[in-house]
């Protein structure tokens, strides 16, 4: 990416960018097929619907591949395959045998991690630094972690003989395509369930590469089936009568529809939905460290993170210094080619998402908030949005209430911890929060007042498969990760 300011080998002036040479990750490690079928019963098959759709690279609008569209008959075929694999094979395998497959899958993801990282960045637009250092290692870690539980479930649930639920229908979003697939598939398989998973329409390719991993690991056919399609495919899956469990990650709007569709059926349900997290910075915090955490929390993944720290609550006494440092820091962010290892902010995942971000930012301006944007150049093709933040914001503003899911931060101020907690909790969501302070006691007292599933202290967006993740209020219910996450995939009652 061209830089605004050339430095001629000298230290750049305050606010200027270092002139880095391009450092693109090699793309040719990935072999994308021109066309992908549905992964049913251990093999790629033509869809009965006869239809295909395309997936593109949002950084340059290039078509990457054609992908099969699963219609109702295809959904049914996948559920039947999963049921048969459940009854005949998977539910009968001892935990230690299931564990071997999960270990193998984890190892193969590790071995093929560069391939996965490049493909994730190509299909979804996220910087290679994120897919390489966060998404793929965490996906592999999730399979390793659950491999460890598969033969020890009776220790996870003391006094209880855990039984699997049966067949799980799983639907995931586009922001962490492989990681969300791992979050869903690994605990289901560890507990003895079989799966039909639908990836998001704009990012199906790493889930399809994962199917090759299942083949390589010789996972018995039908244990995991991956069906690609759109929201309607997801709706058909949810409505299928022969599912025992639905696990959904996505928007609160679709989550509500799914909850209605499942009401009154035997299907168990977990929902991981949206967020509008508060990142709270007290005057005694290490400010530079906090600025890095704030930037990581909202800009590094284009704000495409359900737990993004999209509201920054600053103690009034340090408001000016924080805003000054934040302005400087967003000028230094590199927006551009997701495959470049120096890129901080990649492409917006889809044109639809870009339009949504643009609309909400326009509403912010119309409602009188003050906008601050990086002046960085943007590539000509593809979907891009400059790192942005708003000041003069109150909780009455739309941008402080609605999930934007883009690189846009709303800055608010507070005077006391009581006021900070009140603002932080003044949202229909409750997925996550961040607290920045030098005082452990202050953190502990403050965190206990927050109605959020995860509260990070002096850091942000840190994940571990052993740590449960999930929301309060309209951020959903159920947890993923840790023992809590396992409990969503075992039958209750047998204590
Ligand atoms: P979305 O529109 O709700 O879509 C999520 C998934 O549901 C996609 O696979 C989508 O298919 C499918 N879908 C759409 N309509 C459906 C319906 N009526 N029935 C069944 N499935 C349907 O959400 P998104 O825009 O992809 O993702 C962004 C949202 O996910 C944000 O709100 C974010 O906060 C949330 N999220 C939450 C977490 C968490 O752990 N809490 C994690 C990541 C993201 P198509 O893509 O093909 O339309
Ligand atoms: Mg794509």
Neighbour order of strands in the largest sheet:
13-14-15-12-11-16-17
Beta content: 15-25%
Helical segment count = 16
CATH top level label of the largest domain = Alpha Beta
Q: At the fourth CATH level, what is the homologous superfamily of the largest domain?
A: Aldehyde Dehydrogenase, Chain A, domain 1
Determine the CATH topology of the largest domain: Aldehyde Dehydrogenase, Chain A, domain 1
Distance between the termini: 60 Å
Q: Which runs of at least 5 residues are low in confidence (pLDDT < 50)?
A: 1-10
* CATH architectural type of the largest domain: 3-Layer(aba) Sandwich
Structural class: alpha/beta
Shape: globular
Count of beta strands: 18
Instruction: Indicate how many domains the architecture comprises.
Output: 2
Q: Which percent bin holds the helix content?
A: 25-40%
Radius of gyration: 23 Å
Task: Characterise this structure.
This protein has 495 residues and is α/β, with parallel strands linked by helices. It has two domains: 27-272 and 474-491, Aldehyde Dehydrogenase, Chain A, domain 1; 278-462, Aldehyde Dehydrogenase, Chain A, domain 2 (3-Layer(aba) Sandwich), CATH 3.40.309. The protein is built from 16 helices and 18 strands. The chain has helices at residues 72-88, 95-111, 113-124, 128-150, 153-156, 177-190, 205-216, 231-239, 252-262, 287-298, 319-332, 351-366, 398-401, 417-425, 440-447, 482-487, and strands at 35-36, 38-40, 43-45, 52-57, 62-68, 167-171, 194-198, 224-226, 245-249, 268-272, 278-281, 311-315, 370-373, 388-391, 408-414, 432-436, 454-457, 476-477. α7 links the parallel β7 (194-198) and β8. The protein starts with 34 loop residues before the first strand and ends in an 8-residue tail after the last helix. Mean pLDDT is 95; it is low at 1-10.
């Amino acid at each position: 990416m061209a830089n605004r300011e050339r430095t001629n080998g000298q230290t750049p002036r305050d606010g200027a960018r270092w002139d880095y040479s391009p450092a693109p990750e090699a793309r040719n490690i990935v072999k994308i097929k021109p066309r992908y079928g549905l992964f049913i019963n251990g093999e790629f098959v033509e869809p009965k619907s006869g239809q295909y759709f395309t997936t593109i690279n949002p950084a340059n609008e290039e078509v990457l591949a054609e992908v099969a569209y699963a219609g109702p008959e295809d959904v049914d075929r996948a559920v039947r395959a999963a049921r048969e694999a459940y009854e005949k094979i998977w539910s009968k395998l001892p935990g230690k045998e299931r564990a071997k497959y999960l270990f193998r899958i984890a190892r193969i993801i590790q071995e093929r991690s560069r391939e996965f990282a490049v493909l994730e960045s190509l299909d979804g637009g996220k910087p290679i630094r994120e897919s390489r250092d966060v998404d793929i290692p965490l996906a592999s870690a999730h399979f390793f972690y659950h491999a460890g539980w598969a033969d020890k479930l009776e220790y996870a649930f003391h006094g209880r003989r855990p039984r699997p639920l049966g067949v799980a229908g799983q639907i995931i979003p586009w922001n962490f395509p492989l990681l969300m697939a791992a979050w869903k598939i690994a605990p289901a398989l560890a507990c003895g369930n079989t799966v039909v998973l639908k990836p998001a329409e704009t990012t199906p390719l790493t889930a399809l590469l994962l199917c090759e991993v299942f083949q390589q690991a010789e996972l018995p056919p039908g244990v995991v089936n991956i069906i690609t399609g759109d929201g309607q495919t997801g709706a058909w899956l949810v409505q299928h009568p022969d599912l025992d469990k639905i696990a959904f990650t996505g928007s609160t709007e679709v989550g509500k529809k799914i909850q209605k569709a499942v009401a009154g059926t035997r299907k168990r349900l977990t929902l991981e939905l949206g967020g509008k997290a508060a990142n709270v910075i007290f005057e005694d915090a290490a400010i530079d460290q906090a600025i890095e955490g704030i930037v990581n929390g909202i800009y590094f993944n284009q704000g495409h993170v359900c737990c993004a720290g999209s509201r920054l609550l600053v103690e009034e006494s340090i408001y000016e210094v924080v805003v000054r440092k934040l302005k400087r820091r967003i000028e230094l962010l590199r927006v551009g080619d997701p495959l470049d290892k120096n890129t901080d902010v990649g492409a917006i995942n889809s044109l639809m998402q870009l339009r949504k971000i643009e609309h909400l930012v326009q509403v912010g301006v119309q409602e009188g908030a003050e906008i601050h944007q990086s002046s960085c150049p943007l590539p000509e093709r593809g979907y891009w949005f400059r790192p942005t933040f708003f000041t003069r914001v109150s909780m009455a503003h739309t941008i402080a209430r609605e999930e934007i899911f883009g690189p846009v931060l709303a800055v608010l101020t507070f005077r006391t911890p009581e006021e900070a907690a009140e603002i932080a909790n003044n949202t229909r969501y409750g997925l996550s929060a961040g607290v920045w302070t030098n005082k452990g006691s202050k953190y502990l007292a403050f965190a206990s007042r927050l109605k959020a599933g995860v509260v990070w202290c002096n850091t942000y967006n840190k994940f571990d498969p052993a740590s449960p993740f999930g929301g309060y209020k309209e951020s959903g219910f159920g947890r993923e990760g840790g023992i809590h996450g396992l409990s969503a995939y075992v039958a209750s009652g047998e204590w």
